[in-house]
Every structure is written in C-alpha cells, then in structure tokens.
Design brief:
By secondary structure, this protein is mostly helical. The protein has four helices and no strands. Helix 2 packs antiparallel against helix 3 and helix 3 packs antiparallel against helix 4. The longest helix is centred in the last third of the chain and has 38 residues.
Length: about 110
C-alpha cells in the first residue's frame, strides 16, 4: 500500500517526507528482526524503540494527510494497518514483561 502512495507522490514530497517514512518502515523491520533473535531482557528495550518508531510513523502519515498528500481512504487504510502493528508489538512487549516478572518471582522463591 505504501509503495503505491510513494510512487504517486509529487517529487519534492517523495524525496522529503516520503523518504523519511520509507526509512522508518525499514528501521521498524530491522528492529523486529533484531528483537526476534535477542535475549528476553534486551528484547523489551528493542520493542520500546519499535513503539517509538511506530509513533513517528503515525505522526508522519497524519502530516501527509493534513497537507493533503494522501486521500482520506489511504490515510484510514494505512492508519489501521499501523495501529495493528502497534497492537502486535505492544502485546509482545506485555507478554515478555509478564513472563520476566513470573521468572523473577520464581527465582526469589528458590
């Protein structure tokens, strides 16, 4: 979806805000890959970074919409997708926090 929007943006916008959004998508993908293979205690920190990047992505898409560089339908569609990614990352982080809390409680008992 993003690629179609990116290709149809006017040149100036494509190489400014479009390039920034493109970079954010790639950074998020890279961080997700990194989080998959990282130990649990460091994984939570990476997931927080991913959440920050997703917030930035939301901001830039809202900016695109406000200056009318994307249509309402595109904004709604991509906004929903970004929201779902945020929920997945948030759920992953929440699960890890509860898992590490349980492990710590078990270690204290021993």
């Amino acid at each position: 979806k993003w690629i179609e929007i990116f290709r149809n943006m006017e040149r100036i916008s494509r190489f400014n805000i479009g390039a920034r959004i493109d970079a954010l998508f790639l950074e998020i993908l890279e961080l997700i890959r990194k989080a998959i293979y990282t130990p649990i205690n460091k994984k939570i920190i990476i997931l927080e970074t991913i959440s920050d990047k997703i917030d930035s992505l939301r901001f830039f898409f809202q900016l695109l919409w406000e200056v009318r560089l994307i249509a309402n339908k595109q904004y709604i569609t991509i906004g929903a997708d970004i929201e779902n990614i945020g929920k997945i990352i948030g759920g992953w982080k929440k699960g890890l926090i509860s898992k590490t809390s349980a492990l710590r409680a078990e270690e204290r008992k021993q």
